[in-house]
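Appendix B: a complete holo record

For completeness, this appendix reproduces one full record from the ligand-bound portion of the collection. The bound molecule is 2-acetamido-2-deoxy-beta-D-glucopyranose. The inputs are the chain sequence and the ligand SMILES; the output is the full three-dimensional arrangement of the complex, encoded as structure tokens. No fields have been trimmed.
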Amino acid sequence: MATLRITTILLLLLLISFSTAAYVSGDNDDTKAVYQVLQGYDFPVGIIPKGATGYKLDNSTGKFSLYLNSSCSFSIDSYKLKYMSTITGVIKKDKLSSLSGIKVKVLILWLSISEVIRDDDELDFSVGIASADFSVNNFEESPTCGCGFDCVNANEKKLINRNGFVSSS
Ligand SMILES: *[C@@H]1O[C@H](CO)[C@@H](O)[C@H](O)[C@H]1NC(C)=O
Ligand SMILES: *[C@@H]1O[C@H](CO)[C@@H](O)[C@H](O)[C@H]1NC(C)=O
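The structure of the chain with 2-acetamido-2-deoxy-beta-D-glucopyranose bound, as generated:
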């Protein structure tokens, strides 16, 4: 019964988001709300890429679903990340757990990021068997699908690196 109800609610939400998308190409208040909720739990907005369209959150348990306008991939440093258009998990202050819908490519495997824990100024992304720490400062802004955190400066950076490489030889 409970499962049936949840399925119905999900279907309704899907219908609502589809019909909304058909008429308005972005409800700003709702879009911002997703990132504000993250900040309310002490997470920087940059752990979720641009393009969030809405969310569902059970206040008492922290169980949430978050919706992006499309699936999304980009790289941070040497890591390739992939976000599905629906991300689910449990959010508590400084801790995201039971995550589903975010993957990172490690060597040749796509692994699910299952947990993100904020420890002071560090974010710890865990795939269960391994984890990686990043400074919170990296996530002040949401990455853009495709080019991640460095869309505008991507070409400039390459040039600077090339010059540095030349001058050091
Ligand atoms: C999703 O949203 C982002 C940011 O608002 C926008 O740049 C992008 O074009 C959108 N993508 C689709 C497929 O609508
Ligand atoms: C969720 O909890 C916060 C306080 O913890 C409260 O201010 C807010 O109204 C609650 N929202 C809902 C939808 O229950």
